[in-house]
């Protein structure tokens, strides 16, 4: 075996380790939500073509993070999100697996929807969930529309599955919803 | 949220003059004792369906909905007074009797469907005040409405989730192999959560003696999981996949002979039927489909006589009434009108007549 080859294997292993670190990184001490609303959670509901607020830097901690997504997947069932949104297809609550967002599809915008609730029937989860849990949920919600890296999503659905797991399906471009809602 | 159907409030009912017909529905505080501790307080069993009134017996009849959560492992016991039917004294509100159609419901089989009050032909030519109930669990119940006793209970749709109704004990016979467990998915359970028939009422025709049942042919795979009680969110604890039952059609329109206890005809509909039925004295029966067809069929043969495409799926109640004759020259011209959902204009169907010859052939 040539030295050169051995070197590149080592390099690959190192790269994989670093990549994996990022994917697996876990914040064991997420800051709990204070008594009053946190200033860092901007209201993302804005009229007309107003500009979305600047992205929240905390997004990097949760986006594409396997343990956050796995926690979020568990919470999505435990907190009864399923009863309204089903496993993304929607029911009483809007579909979360299409490319259409009423209140923004960035992870921090999804956190804001969960935290503040939304007027047409989405309950507010502030004081029921920690901020960290809301970010975890948002990270999972983004996987429903195939927006997260394949090596970060769970290979196994928690529910009766009707479709192959995300790790075995092609990443497809986001499709707009079939029809405009309301 | 507390449910007033359950709990100690029922104690008075248990001491009523006529005891409930079956032993499992007799006793005190059953609305508390047939649950795990304190569970009756969050156990569902609401009333969201039809009420019928008998002005002679002065009784009001209604059914109660399923227990919560759907995951039945979380609520041991029979779970009274969910998924059953009540008869209550209209002046005092006191329960006269109660019949538990689906004890310890496993599949969201509410019992809120309509109760149709009829005079039933008794053994010695006398008339029994009875009630007809095409139930969510798939059985067609004929019950003596004075005391709740079952006269007959037959499957009017495909059922594998139960093995029948024991007429001696009044108890539904479960099919243990179809019982969902936490962490285990059970496939091919029939009927699915909306039952063999949901809230949309059937119609009884005194002319033909038949009951016309718009209903569903839907089966499911079901997996149970732990549900947390969080006010304002669905308390379910089940994942369900629904699909068409045997035959591949999701809707059925069944004409049922309650005395002969058999199906007279059935019409398969591709889409689930969520429209109520209407039977007229002219020998016509009306119903609508989810793809917007409003249909008139012959009450005896089921033959399609007329249909009209409306602008939306039909889940609203058709009604009929005698319209002012206007410029009509025909003295006995009957006009029916139907109001399909979201259609602002009534549809005049006064030209439809069942063919005289066809109705006598079947």
Any idea what the CATH superfamily of chain B is called? Quinoprotein alcohol dehydrogenase-like superfamily
Q: Level of helix content of chain B?
A: under 10%
Structural class by sheet pairing and helices of chain A: mainly alpha
| Biggest sheet details of chain B | 4 strands, antiparallel
Structural overview:
The complex is a heterodimer of chains A (182) and B (362). Chain A is mostly helical and 182 residues long. Chain A is built from 6 helices and no strands. Chain A has helices at 3-24, 59-62, 66-78, 81-85, 107-116, 131-144. The longest helix of chain A has 22 residues, at 3-24. With 362 residues, chain B is mainly β. Chain B has one domain (9-274): Methanol Dehydrogenase, Chain A (8 Propeller), CATH 2.140.10. In chain B, 4% of the residues lie in helices and 34% in strands. Chain B has 3 helices and 24 strands. The model of chain B is unreliable at 9-16, 327-344 and 357-362 (pLDDT under 50). Classes of the chains: A mainly alpha (182), B mainly beta (362). Chain A: Residues 67-145 form the Cytochrome c domain.
Keywords:
heterodimer, A: 182 residues, mainly alpha, Cytochrome Bc1 Complex, Chain D, domain 2, B: 362 residues, mainly beta, Methanol Dehydrogenase, Chain A, four-stranded antiparallel sheet, 24 strands, 4% helix, 34% strand, globular, disordered C terminus
Summarize this, please?
Chain A: Residues 25-46, 149-182 are annotated as: Disordered. The complex is a heterodimer of chains A (182) and B (362). In chain A, 37% of the residues lie in helices and 0% in strands.
Topology (elements, then pairings):
The complex is a heterodimer of chains A (182) and B (362).
Chain A: H1 3-24, H2 59-62, H3 66-78, H4 81-85, H5 107-116, H6 131-144
Helix pairs in contact in A: 3-6, 5-6
Chain B: H1 11-14, H2 30-33, E1 51-54, E2 59-63, E3 85-89, E4 95-99, E5 116-121, E6 127-134, E7 139-144, E8 150-155, E9 162-165, E10 172-174, E11 185-189, E12 203-205, E13 210-216, E14 218-224, E15 238-244, E16 251-257, E17 262-269, E18 278-279, E19 284-288, E20 293-298, E21 304-309, E22 319-320, E23 336-338, E24 347-348, H3 356-361
Antiparallel strand pairs in B: 1-2, 2-3, 3-4, 5-6, 6-7, 7-8, 9-10, 11-14, 12-13, 13-16, 14-15, 16-17, 18-19, 19-20, 20-21, 22-23, 23-24
Cofactor (chain A): heme c
Biased composition (Basic and acidic residues) (chain A): 149-159
Keywords (chain A): Electron transport, Heme, Iron, Metal-binding, Respiratory chain, Transport
């Amino acid at each position: 075996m040539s030295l050169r080859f051995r070197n590149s294997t080592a390099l690959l292993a190192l790269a994989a380790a670093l990549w994996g670190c990022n994917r697996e990184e876990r914040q064991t001490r997420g800051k709990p939500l204070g008594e009053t609303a946190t200033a860092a959670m901007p209201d993302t509901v804005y009229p007309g073509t107003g500009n979305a607020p600047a992205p929240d830097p905390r997004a990097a901690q949760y986006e594409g993070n396997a343990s956050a997504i796995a926690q979020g997947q568990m919470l999505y069932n435990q907190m009864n999100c399923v009863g309204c949104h089903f496993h993304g297809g929607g029911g009483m609550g809007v579909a979360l697996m299409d490319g259409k967002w009423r209140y923004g599809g960035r992870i921090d915008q999804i956190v804001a929807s969960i935290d503040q609730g939304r007027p047409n029937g989405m309950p507010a989860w502030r004081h029921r969930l920690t901020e960290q849990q809301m970010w975890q949920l948002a990270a999972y919600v983004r996987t429903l529309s195939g927006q997260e890296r394949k090596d970060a999503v769970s290979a196994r659905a928690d529910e009766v599955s009707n479709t192959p797991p995300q790790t075995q399906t092609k990443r497809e471009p986001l499709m707009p919803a079939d029809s405009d809602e309301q | 949220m507390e449910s007033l159907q359950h709990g100690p409030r029922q104690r008075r009912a248990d001491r009523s003059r006529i005891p409930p017909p079956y032993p499992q529905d007799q006793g005190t505080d059953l609305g508390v004792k047939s649950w795990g501790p304190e569970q009756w307080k969050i156990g569902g069993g609401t009333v969201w369906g039809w009420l019928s009134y008998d002005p002679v017996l002065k009784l009001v009849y209604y059914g109660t909905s399923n227990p919560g959560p759907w995951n039945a492992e979380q609520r041991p016991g029979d779970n009274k007074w969910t998924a059953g039917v009540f008869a209550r004294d209209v002046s005092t509100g006191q329960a006269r009797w109660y019949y538990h159609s689906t004890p310890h419901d496993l599949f969201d089989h509410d019992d809120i469907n309509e109760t149709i009050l009829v005079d039933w032909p008794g053994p010695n030519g006398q008339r029994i005040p009875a009630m007809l109930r095409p139930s969510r669990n798939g059985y067609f119940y004929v019950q003596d409405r004075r005391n709740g006793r079952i006269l007959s209970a037959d499957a009017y749709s495909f059922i594998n989730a139960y093995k029948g109704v024991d007429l001696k004990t009044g108890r539904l016979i479960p099919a243990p192999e179809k019982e969902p467990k936490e962490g285990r998915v059970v496939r091919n359970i029939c009927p699915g959560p909306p039952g063999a028939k949901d809230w949309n009422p059937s119609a009884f025709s005194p002319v033909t003696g038949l009951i016309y049942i718009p209903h569903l042919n839907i089966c499911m795979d079901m997996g149970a999981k732990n549900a947390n009680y969080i006010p304002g969110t669905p308390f379910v604890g089940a994942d369900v996949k629904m699909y068409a039952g045997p035959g591949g059609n999701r809707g059925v329109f069944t004409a049922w002979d309650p005395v002969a206890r058999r199906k007279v005809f059935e019409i398969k509909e591709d889409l689930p039927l969520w429209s109520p039925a209407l039977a007229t004295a002219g020998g016509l029966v009306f119903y609508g489909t989810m793809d917007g067809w409003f249909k008139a069929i012959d009450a005896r043969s089921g033959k399609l006589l007329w249909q009209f495409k409306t602008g939306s799926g039909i889940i609203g109640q058709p009604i009929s009434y005698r319209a002012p004759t206007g410029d009509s020259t025909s003295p006995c011209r009957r006009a029916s009108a139907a109001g399909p959902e979201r259609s602002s204009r009534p549809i005049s169907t006064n030209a439809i007549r069942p063919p005289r010859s066809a109705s006598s052939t079947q």
